[in-house]
What does this fold into?
Amino acid sequence: MSLKFDYLVIGSGSAGLTFALNVAQHGTVGIITKKDRAESNTNYAQGGIASVLDQHDSFESHINDTLIAGAGLCKREAVEVIVREGPDVIHELIAMGAEFTTKNGEFDLGREGGHTANRIVHAADMTGREIEKVLLKKVSEHPNISILEHHFAMEFITEHHLGKHVTRYDNDTHCYGVYALNITEDVVDKVIARVTFLATGGAGRVYLHTTNPEIATGDGIAMAYRAKARVANMEFIQFHPTSLAVAGANSFLISEAVRGHGAYLRDSSGERFMQHYHPQLELAPRDIVARAIDSQMKKLGDEFVSLDMRHLEKNDIIEHFPNIYAECIKHGYDLATQLVPVVPAAHYICGGVVTDLNGQTSILGLFSAGEVSCTGVHGANRLASNSLLEALVFAKRASVKAIEYFQKVNTPIPDLPEWDDSGTINNEEMVLISHNRRELQQLMSDYVGIVRSDLRLERAFKRTRLLYEEVEEFYNRNRVSVPLFQLRNMITVAYLIIRSAMRRKESRGLHYTTDYPDTLSSEQRDTVI
It folds into this structure.
């Protein structure tokens, strides 16, 4: 089946929905999401949105905090864009109906690691869900927007599908839409659009322990890489310091805002330890806190450290963190009276598909924003709560440029072929896919985690190469399925992370290697692949 829209959006998180709402005044919009419309990384974002909304704060302070966290690799112009345009997007959300937590008629601004001022706007401890709810309501009410649930985007359609040899260094490759698997009907649809917007989120599921939902398998990054878009800085994987270390909790994220509210970290002897690692103690940047926890666990032979809020008022904890409190209770821990076991887990990718300050990728007609993209904002480490801010600001900027592109570029869309799956068969051996998936996640966690080395990376590279060959052989013989395509995408993203890490001969931000522990190169900038 063939579908056609003026604008096509891949992903239904905050970036995708914001873009869709902005361009819908200028044409028809199709939103592809592989699960239900509300299933996205945005929906799981607890902490909030960092923005300068207090008279005692300043743009320059927020910019400086971001640059420091990014360890010298942030693009200042990109940082200035999100910081200076941030307050406007907050007020636009409020105008749509978003309700953020207030105190005495003012924003109840929190503080998180790496920030020197209280600037975290939040809706209790479920900020992402509040934003998603408001945006989805507006999208569902708009007559120009169609949401294609249970559709899995597989490949961008470019000149490659017309028989042209496309390379990563071409400047005249166009995106004409995607091939998408209609999961409900088990057929591949050709979805055509003059403008495509990529907003598929991250790839935390490449690792064994992650705070990300099941959907975060790196599909957008892998698709863009296969289409020959430029990708950069994939070695910078942020591990959230405090995920709940309890069987069955699925690495539930305990927000940085909890430490911002005054929680301590303690080791198995009951001692606080962050004073040995950073002057900001528990509010140090995430990479430092995650490495400190990792180091402390290895020194003492422990599997977790503990989060301590026992010195805080119980009612205050419940008021500020109702969802986190309830989740901990569900797993047998009372935040107000007990030490809670926590461990770092893969959380956020600071690299991704390279874009300019207007969300334009290296492929014409393909725009991108959110975690899937590399705008230069985060550098080598993301400052807490800059993620939702970046997604909203750059989605808005991308929509302006995309409308301009749509109106100016009148080149007719060529006759595009249907998806060809001739010669393939249906294969029910899901055990092959599930086994390879577990193997990939284990080796990424063991060899390409918080602390790396040349030897570990070399081993990871060799093993992922074998997995790639096995899965490609399986893929070429069998009809497409979501688990199979997700595995292919995860292997692609793992390869990009490993190759990027092998190229960076220094320790910087989220990339720490025992072979270059004290090395910081003034010459090594972005790792573009």
Remarks:
- The chain has 13 helices and 20 strands.
- The first helix runs from residue 14 to 23.
- The mean pLDDT is 92.
- The radius of gyration is 22 Å.
